[in-house]
C-alpha cells in the first residue's frame, strides 16, 4: 500500500466506518460497511497490508487491503490498544488481564496472564513485549516479557499513580505514557534500559493528549488543550524526547485531537473542524520542518481517529537455511556461521536441528523433551502449544534456573506432515533448538520443503 491515511468517519445519517485517503491523488475509499463505531481506532500493520480496528460491539476486525478479506478475530473492550508484530503476522492486545498473541495467518492465539495488564505492544525485535501492569504494591509499572510470559522484567519504579497511553518508541529504546488522568494529563518519557524518566513541559493547561513518536524516535507530537476566549482549542505541538525543544505547529478547533506522523517524519496529520459540535469534521496536515500553513485534506460529517501509514520496514539481513534430509527451511541471521550441517552459531545466538522418533502425540513428546532427566531447560520449563505450517507444534521455554551453559536454549517441536526417513529410520517430529531471543524469529519462516 502506498502512502495513505486511514480514518474513522461517519456522515450525518450513516454509521461509522473505516476510510482511506490516498496521499498521491487525494482519492477517498470506504473500506468497511457499517462495521465501525465512534471508538474505532485503525492500526496499520508494519507492511501496510492490513488494518486492524475494534468495531461495533467490541469486535476486533483485521482488514486485508491486498485481497479485500475481512476477519473477525475476537471481542474486547473498546479503546484497547492493538499492536502488530514487526513481521505483520501477529496481533497483540489485552483481554481480561490476558496478553493475547493472535496469528492472523493460522487464526489461532496464545496468551499469558498478568493481572491488570494494559497497553501490550511489541518491541521492534519481535522477541519481546512491553506492557503496563501493577506491581506487588499496586503501583502501575512498565514490564518487558518474552512472548511466553516467562522472563518478565520490571522496567520502572513508578509511585505516582496510573500510567495511560503507553507507547514504545520505534527504535525500542524508550517509552512514553501520560499521567495521572484525563483532567490533568502529563507526558513522561522513560529510558527502558535504565528506567529513568522525565516529564515534558507540555501545553499551558497541563492537558496533553494523544502523544505519538516520530518515525526516527527523536520527537514526540501531541495535542495540548488551551482555553482561548472561552473556546477550547488544541495546539499541535512537538518536543524532543529529552524535552526543551517544544514547538507549536498548528491549532485545532477541537478540545483534543489524535496526531499521526507521515512515514518520513516531515508532516503531521490531525483533526479539526469541531465548531459547536464536539466531534471533528476535518483532517489537516502540517509540515514539521518548514513554515508552510496547514492544509485541509478531508471534510466529513464526523471523524474520530486517524493513522498515517508507517514507514515500510527494511528487509532484515537474513540468509536461507535449507536441509533436504530434515525436510525443512527457514531464515537465520546472516552473520551466523556453520558449525555442523545441523548447527549454526553467531555472536548473539545459535540454532540446531534434529528429529525425534516417536509414535506418541505432540503433548507427550513436548513434555518428554521439556522435562528431560538432565533438566536442560531448568526445573520448571513452560510448554506453549502452537501450530506451524498447519501442523501440531509446541515451544519450550526455559525456567529461571536453567544451567547457564545452555545459553538460554529453547526449543520448537513440530510434527512432520509425513514421517521423514533419515539414514533408514522414520522420524515423526522435527526439533529446532535455539536461544530464547531467536526461537520465535526462526520459527516464523519455517517451512517443510516437500
TrEMBL record:
Name of the protein in its database record: Uncharacterized protein
Signal peptide as annotated in the record: none
Similarity comment text for this entry: Belongs to the TolB family.
Superkingdom per UniProt: Bacteria
Gene3D superfamilies: TolB, C-terminal domain
Record organism: Paenibacillus ihbetae
Pfam families per UniProt: PD40
